[in-house]
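Input protein
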Amino acid sequence: MIDPHVHLRDGEERHKETLRHGLKVAEKLGLSAVFDMPNTRPPVLRREDIHRRLAMAKAVQSSVYYGLYCGLTSDPGQIAEAAACVRETEQVVGLKLYAGHSTGDLAVTGRPSQQTVFSTLAENHYGGVLAVHCESETYFRPDLWDPQHPLTHTMVRPPAAELHAINTILELAAQNRFSGTLHICHISLPESVEMIEAARRNASFSITCGTTPHHLLLHDMMMEGPEGLLLKMNPPLRSEHDRAGLMDMMLEGRIDWVETDHAPHRRMEKFGAPYASGIPGFPVLPYLIRALREQGADNALIRRITHDRICSVFGLSLSYREIRNIDVYGEYEVNAYKML
């Protein structure tokens, strides 16, 4: 199985996670590959960043295939260099655009800046994968955040923020004749899937989407009480109705793949400023596979959403093996998973 969306930290965030630890955990879990995201400190934006990160991963000597995304800014020169890196280096699996801030400072907000991204990619004939974190800051309500009531985080980043961002990104891709694969990351709403399905009917480019184990298994009301800070993430958990609808869509094969968005933080960072968003994803993946089987998913669907579809989109040839249903994360395991 492949996890195409992980945050393995390291650098200035070694206290959260290291490439060595993350890859060894992935290996113990039985994953064939992981794709690492670029919102590290420092971020992965240039050739030298990529080469340094790939060298660090190689030094781990893991059997897990390590793929890496290159981040995007609104600087045309940097965008062109990033696009070239995807063509030049096999392990650079695609580009990552943060349409709204999440963890770290890497973001391209506002339609004009996002237009620059798509026009520059068109000028450079980019045909690879562009993965987008879709949340529009226009709809953010930071004034509603109250760490004493973690559930308020779902109001800070409401469903409208996700839906508006997806609509904008789809429009910009079409207007600029995007010729690659547009991937919408960590979908949290059934309406988002429906919007993507509608766009696919007329699009001249490929559109994929993924969702996470936590958005399929957990819901917003589980954030009530102080322990709810453990479940703070971006995009937030949604209602039980939305969660159930998303699970139905996954079982119906309407979502391309599962991506854990593995994003560890120290407990003190979850329960105190900055009240970090993100949770470890590796430990919950076996729970999701079990839940999918219990709800009727057959072997073909499990394989498609954890391996085959990912290999097809990214042009990879990797062996398939199911992950092991074991506790692998030790000291980093988040207590919130006991809720499952």
User: Anything to note?
Assistant: The first helix runs from residue 19 to 29. The chain has twelve helices and eight strands. The CA atoms of residues 66 and 306 lie 16 Å apart. The mean pLDDT is 93.
